[in-house]
Structure formats: C-alpha cells, structure tokens
Amino acid sequence: MFSPQGPSLRELTVQALSSVERGYDLLAPKFDYTPFRTPDSILGATTQALSARGPFTDGLDVCCGSGAGMSVLRSLCQGRTIGVDFSAGMLAQAKSAHPDATWVRADVRAMPFAPRFDLAVSFGALGHFLPEELPALFEGVHRALRPGGLFAFPIGTMPPRTAVAHWVTLGFDLTMRVRNAVWRPPFVMYYRTNPLRDVLTDLTTAGFAAESVALTELGQHGDGSPRCQLILARKPLAAAPA
C-alpha cells in the first residue's frame, strides 16, 4: 500500500489493532514509505524558520520515530543531537539512518533528561497524546532545556468546514474513537484533540513563553488561513519572581 516498499493493507490493519508502541514497532521497517513520515517540505520550512533563532548547541528530537527530524537538528545544532522515542523498532530505523546521533528509548511523559539542550523539536507526535497527557510532556521538555532554550514543533491547522479535508479528518477521529471503545489495547491517534489555543495554554502553564508563526510556504486553506503553524516555546532565562 502507498508504494511497492510500503506496508500492505493487512499490515496496516494489524498495526491499527495493536497498541501505539507495538503498532509502531511493526510499522517501523516500512514507515518511511508511508505518508505518515513527516514530509521534507515541513522539515525544510521548520529548519528555515529556526535558522535565525539560534545559535543552538545540543538538540533533542522528542518522539523521534524513524529519525526524520534529525535532519533539522543536524542543520541547526553544533553539538550533540539526541532522539527519544518509546518504540524500539523506530529507534532501530533511526539509528540505521543516523548512526552518529544518540538514540534513547523512554516514555516522553517522564522525560529522563537534565537541562542540557538548547533546542528541542517534535514532528507529528501530538496526536498520540490525549489532552490530559500534554502537560506532563511539555513539563518534561521544559526540564530538559537550558534557560533560554527553545521547543519548536509544527502543527497542522484544521481546514474550514467547507473543505473535504475537514470532514475526512473528522471521520478519521470518529473511527478511532469507535475503535478504542470496542477494542483493547487502545491506539491513540487523533487529529482534533489538540487545538492550537489549548496547546499554547498548556505550554504557558508548563513555564514557556509560547507563540505561533505561520509557515506560509506550506500554503493556505481556501479561506486564506495557513495550513501549518510553527509553535515556538521559549524557556525563560530566569524564573519569574514569585
């Protein structure tokens, strides 16, 4: 399916009926041949938007998957680059593609890093977290950054109701909710559970100064709104006074 090198429909079905971790372990060898891999256009636009916001020394790819985001860190960071994910299969693919980076298996809801990074990025991961899980994720990234460090990740905006993509996205989320209501273990993957406003609020609560900028080179919806926003969350240089 998708391409001759991609997974078959049967393989995708088995993955969808597995847990998130087990599903990605199964999909890992063929993941880069699916549309689920972050497109190079998004990686390039993110790199360009961050290039004037450095310099950066050490970089962290949060929920790194098969390692596509490492190209962004290697372009921007002058020091050590580390990827973290809970799928052993995905980490094996990432290590094969980028053997000179460091790869760590961990649950990012309990981030295992001390404050050492200047830049943290994440691509396509928020849909795998329920809204109540995002505060722990953002707090962990905040702890892993040095004062003044930056957490950046692109987030797709919802198409207007007049667009076919709006209803396709809604249908996908409804299908996943039905699947998780009748089948265990759950597979958490939603497109509509993390609105931009709520994400910015959770980042601010975690201690970041957060904003969003439009990645205009990635196009617009029919109503003129950007298809993709880049979230920029900066850890303050010093703690705010009580």
In short:
The chain has 242 residues and is α/β, with parallel strands linked by helices. It has helices spanning 9-16, 20-27, 40-50, 70-76, 88-97, 134-144, 164-182, 196-205; strands spanning 59-62, 81-85, 102-105, 117-122, 145-156, 209-214, 228-234. 35% of the residues lie in helices and 18% in strands.
Would you mind describing this structure in some detail?
Keywords: Methyltransferase, Transferase. It comes from Asanoa ferruginea. GO terms for molecular function: methyltransferase activity. It holds the Pfam family Methyltransf_25. With 242 residues, the protein is an alpha/beta fold. The N and C termini lie far apart (56 Å). The model has no long low-confidence stretch (mean pLDDT 89). The chain has one domain: Vaccinia Virus protein VP39 (Rossmann fold), CATH 3.40.50. It contains eight helices and seven strands.
Task: Tell me the CATH topology.
Answer: Rossmann fold
* CATH C-level label: Alpha Beta
What is the gyration radius calculated from CA atoms?
A: 18 Å
Number of strands: 7
Low-confidence spans: none
Widest β-sheet, arrangement of strands: 3-2-1-4-5-7-6
Could you tell me the mean pLDDT?
A: 89
Annotation field: number of helices:
8
What are the secondary-structure elements, in order, as H or E?
Answer: HHHEHEHEEHEHHEE
Summed up, the domain count is 1
Helix content: 25-40%
Proportion of strand residues: 15-25%
Note the main sheet: 7 strands, mixed
- Secondary-structure content class: alpha/beta
How widely separated are the two ends? 56 Å
Q: Give me the CATH architecture, please.
A: 3-Layer(aba) Sandwich
CATH superfamily: Vaccinia Virus protein VP39
What is the overall silhouette? Answer: globular
Protein name: Methyltransferase family protein
Keywords: Methyltransferase, Transferase
GO molecular function: methyltransferase activity
InterPro entries: Methyltransf_25, SAM-dependent_MTases_sf
